């Protein structure tokens, strides 16, 4: 019989590489941000699985505290990433890195 | 001052909150004041460490694992001191750099809250006692650093900031994966508990590999440096100095804690050689790229890619000569921190007088900003090892030769020569005569009589700040033995 935490660990082992693949290959900035969140969720799932696997009776609370804190980190990073992506879109009309980077650059710096 | 370990991070954090509600000159004054207060508190902590040895501090008296414990030893202290010294000078520089903008709502008003938050985060990272708190602070400093690198407001700045954020957060997920594996194996996150257990086997090895890869990206070791040159060169000069001199060192600091303290027996075979080979390629490739740049700040940014390489070159010796390697490498961290901050600050002053970042447009800078050009030349010389006893590079090369690994010494000597070459490339145009102004510019100059000659466009504060940090880099070499003796506190 497969235990619940083994299913979690197996899912995590699938999610992380899949999300990393999308993160590296898909050019759309918003999809990159979503992929990053999926990848982080994969690791959170592994943490939850560890919390169960380590303790025979009640689950270990420390990994749960780590997951909660990790979710807050993920939220802050996603918020900042989306603000930057929106500003790039508004100023260049592009949703990827490429056009924004290959635009002819100003001769002068803006300082 | 029992609370000194926590005050060194609370003072800048509180300052950041206050600065959020201020603008303009008041904000700059508060920023400088908080910087001086932080520097003072770091000095008090130093005093306490020297007299009473390493300090352990449980936040709000909650014990681990659910409470957070701080730990300050000699290595942490040297990082705190570097950040406080370079940080205070950068604050003085920034107060002058940003306040001449007329626009009260300019995005640069965000500089002070973000910079003080980043400083608090770095200080917290240096005294953090467990690997999960280190994860949080790596992400915390990353968010502050990314937002800082975008305060200039240019599109190029936003693009490089987002690239930096996505790359480094991906690395952060891999770091957290490593933390998970360590916890699954050892059941503790505490650095010292881990050190006593010295876990080894499949999980710790996978964990260390995953975390090291993540941290190598954060400190931009070749080939994971792709995000750095753009992010560091498009930011305003004080931000570039902070990012290049201090933030990349945070990643390296965590690597030292993991490799030499928490997980000393978990490194996969030949990993130290792999890392050292990457370091050696960074020294050569980064220096070569720096030499080929046409933009001043891009040149300085590639110099950082090269200088990060030196930190890893002696990893194969760490098993045989742990203390000596840590000493020489820390010396390089400190020396590069001061010299690179000085280099970027000086470059910022030159760019401001030239109104351009292109090297060939900096003609005549030696006349308009003489101290900045001198600071740039001398801090570049410091990076090339022109210091008493050849500075940290002399120590690193000596160690490599002592252990018969002359090839590393050869690479580092080559890197020193290239550093001298790119420093010359950086200042060469400053000494050339200015080209005659094009006719329309001449008319404009006549329309506003005296504007061209009389302006010291930035005041001398910018130049003197850069010169002061250069002097600090040289002073460090004179007193290196006494400064590095601090490492022995709590480091056995």
Question: Features of this protein?
Answer:
A: 111 residues; mainly alpha; 4 helices; disordered C terminus; B: 492 residues; 21 helices; 2 strands; 73% helix
Describe this structure in words.
The complex is a heterodimer of chains A (111) and B (492). Chain A is mainly alpha-helical. In chain A, 77% of the residues lie in helices and 0% in strands. Chain A contains four helices and no strands. In chain A, helix 1 runs antiparallel to helix 2 (29-54) and helix 2 (29-54) packs antiparallel against helix 3 (61-92). The radius of gyration of chain A is 19 Å and the shape is elongated. In chain B, 73% of the residues lie in helices and 2% in strands. Chain B is built from 21 helices and two strands. Chain B has helices spanning 4-20, 24-52, 74-99, 111-127, 131-149, 155-186, 191-197, 202-218, 228-234, 237-262, 271-291, 296-313, 322-354, 365-368, 370-383, 391-402, 406-428, 439-447, 451-454, 461-478, 480-484; strands at 55-58, 69-72.
Number of strands of chain B: 2
How far apart lie the N and C ends of chain B?
A: 25 Å
Helical stretch tally of chain A: 4
Largest sheet of chain A: none
Radius of gyration of chain A: 19 Å
Show unreliable segments of chain B.
442-455
Give helix % range of chain A. Answer: over 70%
Helix run count of chain B? 21
Principal-axis shape of chain B: globular
Q: What oligomeric assembly is this protein in? A: heterodimer
**Mean pLDDT score of chain B:** 91
Global morphology of chain A: elongated
Give the overall pLDDT of chain A as a whole number: 88
Strand content of chain B: under 5%
Q: Tell me the radius of gyration of chain B.
A: 22 Å
How many beta-strand runs of chain A? 0
Summarize the structure.
The complex is a heterodimer of chains A (111) and B (492). By secondary structure, chain A is an all-alpha fold.
